[in-house]
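>> received
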Amino acid sequence: MIKRQHDKDSAGFKIWLSDDEVCALLDECSDLEVRIAVELGVRCGLRSSEILTVAPKDVVDTDAGWMLRVPAGKGDKYRETPMPESLALRVLTLGDMRDEDGDVPVITVASTRSLRRWITHLREALADRTADDGWLELTMHDLRRTWATNCAEAGVDPLLVIDWGGWSDLETFLEHYKGVYSPAAQRKNRAKVDWL
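>> returned
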């Protein structure tokens, strides 16, 4: 887990999770809705308000693979972001189980406050289980931050990450989301220097 202090005018930390920490977080989700909400943040880069609106009709299998349509993101801007097939099928299956017509959001809570309560419960459980108090700083927005950084580190064109994530410009993306490199990226680049 990488933590960086927010800007001098803000309290708290920005958090980036490693792949193992993302898996630990997902493993901690015993409720299907909670898991879907967390995955929509950390695997699709959705904002909290966007997570609350995802319905089965928004999940489509395209020539580019499984995509999630975000019809009214920040600023009411439409975008599409890739999603893992396993998550796409979970969303579709949950919609089918509820016998919905595809228009009803799969997350049944109506407020981002509920999502914050979910992440608080998960982070407290992980802090207790791992004896790592760093978990206590984790927010829903850190899931989006982790997604963006992981996409960029995997070599995805930054302009495509910006498009998928719904950012208006590269400067915002770099300033707030691509602020650090994962331990794996740091190890890989350290290996390029003989004396390190």
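>> The first strand starts at residue 2 and ends at 5.
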